[in-house]
């Protein structure tokens, strides 16, 4: 069992920068902005000197607003899970009263605390650490997370406190993508549609900060989860607004991480607000999901607060404005009260299995022949397009490659017909199907006259006789 280490401290002391440095990733969003991190972010540290699980937390403050209270609750949960608390302070700002208050809080926990002084660029280590000895947390470790100074010394201190963080002699290899059966589920939608509330409802705990204000979630939070023997990784993403309304650089980074989460997912759950119906931004997000080729499940949230007539209008509005997502299962839920949430993972699992299904070439070719028999392809310059056989060219999404003659002239309408026919016949619910065409090359196209082998041999053996007068 790996040790768990939590990063704690005031806002903007460099916890997320140190998290990315130790995990060698960009999982934590970093910017010169206080209070950027709000949720717990987990990462694996795999180094020659140590191996452990690292938790990045939001900054601890004395503010009494609701958001700060929720962030303190997330930090308290990280402290409960941690075997070691790394208390990060700002070496340039010096010792502040807020740091002393956090130190008193951590001393009362009863777990080991390691004091780390960050932002020591260009300063002598002894001078930076001098005033922090008064906190009574032992000898501090002076580092620079931005430049990577003192990181090896920090890892050595961690292994001295927790010897079980030492790396094992035999390291298990990472599972291949083909063998990894974990379902990666990205939950996307506009701001304030209830994505974080839905994640907490599915998990059964307050895992991420859920607050009644747009833009609460800023990072893409990856959360491992298991239910009924199936492994999931939930990805709670930041809400995506229209491009014209995205002005802050911080929000632009959040949108980029949301799009990266969609690319990394196997299944995408599109969450929409039933009280507002399908708006243009929902259509834009649905188009991005279709372009990525990911399997889709639609969750219509806040369904419990609607009257019967309003529910009928919302259902018809979804059917009218999302005709290109008819293959996706639609659930009408209430993330706050839990109604309808229990059926979501069943549809997610079904869409995942359809997206990664293995279909033999013989089966695809028979389905292609049935599709042509029901509706033959159109004529091109007086000649019929001829399809010979089909095979599976990729998964997630299923990619059907059709070989034949003049296939490049296939109209878009017939391509959509084939996609729908393959999806319906093969029962690939919840995933798009991509159809590609390959035209067979004519090997004799560039040769004007071809003599048979016997004719050529006969001409060489019997020279031409002169004509008689």
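-> sequence recovered:
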């Amino acid at each position: 069992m790996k040790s768990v280490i939590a990063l704690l401290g005031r806002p903007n002391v460099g916890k997320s920068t140190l998290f990315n440095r130790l995990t060698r990733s960009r999982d934590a969003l970093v910017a010169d902005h206080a209070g950027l991190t709000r949720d717990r972010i987990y990462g694996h540290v795999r180094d020659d000197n140590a191996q452990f699980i690292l938790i990045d937390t939001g900054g601890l403050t004395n503010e009494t607003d609701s958001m700060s209270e929720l962030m303190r609750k997330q930090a308290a949960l990280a402290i409960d899970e941690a075997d070691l608390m790394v208390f990060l302070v700002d070496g340039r700002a010096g010792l502040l009263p807020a740091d002393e208050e956090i130190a008193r809080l951590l001393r009362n926990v009863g777990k080991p605390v390691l004091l780390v002084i960050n932002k020591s660029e260009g300063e002598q280590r002894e001078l930076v650490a001098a005033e922090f000895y008064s906190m009574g947390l032992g000898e501090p470790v002076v580092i620079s997370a931005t430049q990577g100074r003192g990181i090896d010394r920090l890892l050595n201190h961690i292994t001295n406190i927790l010897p079980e963080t030492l790396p094992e002699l035999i390291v298990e290899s990472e599972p291949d993508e083909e063998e990894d059966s974990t379902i990666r589920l990205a939950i996307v939608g506009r701001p304030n549609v209830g994505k974080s509330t839905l994640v907490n409802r599915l998990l059964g705990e307050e895992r991420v900060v859920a607050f009644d204000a747009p833009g609460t979630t800023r990072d893409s939070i990856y959360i491992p989860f298991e239910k009924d023997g199936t492994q999931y990784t939930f990805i709670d993403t930041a809400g995506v607004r229209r491009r014209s309304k995205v002005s802050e650089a911080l929000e632009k980074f959040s949108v980029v991480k949301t799009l990266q989460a969609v690319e990394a997912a196997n299944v995408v759950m599109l969450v929409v607000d039933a009280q507002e119906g399908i708006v243009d931004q929902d259509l834009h997000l649905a188009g991005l999901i279709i372009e990525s080729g990911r399997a889709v499940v639609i969750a219509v949230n806040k369904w419990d607060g609607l009257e019967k007539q309003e529910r009928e209008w919302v259902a018809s509005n979804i059917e009218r404005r999302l005709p290109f997502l008819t293959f996706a299962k639609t659930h009408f839920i209430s993330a706050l009260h839990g109604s309808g949430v229990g059926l979501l993972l069943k549809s997610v699992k079904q869409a995942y299995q359809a997206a990664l299904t293995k279909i033999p070439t013989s089966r695809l070719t028979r389905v292609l022949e049935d599709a042509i028999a029901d509706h033959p392809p159109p004529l091109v310059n007086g000649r019929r397009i001829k399809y010979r056989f089909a095979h599976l060219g990729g998964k997630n999404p299923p990619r059907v490659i059709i070989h034949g003659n003049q296939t490049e002239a296939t109209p878009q309408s017939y391509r959509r017909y084939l996609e729908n026919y393959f999806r319906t016949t093969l029962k690939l619910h919840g995933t798009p199907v991509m159809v590609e065409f390959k035209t067979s090359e004519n090997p004799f196209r560039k040769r004007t006259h071809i003599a048979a082998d016997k004719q050529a041999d006969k001409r060489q053996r019997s020279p031409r006789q002169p004509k008689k007068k």
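Residues 178 and 356 are 10 Å apart (CA to CA).
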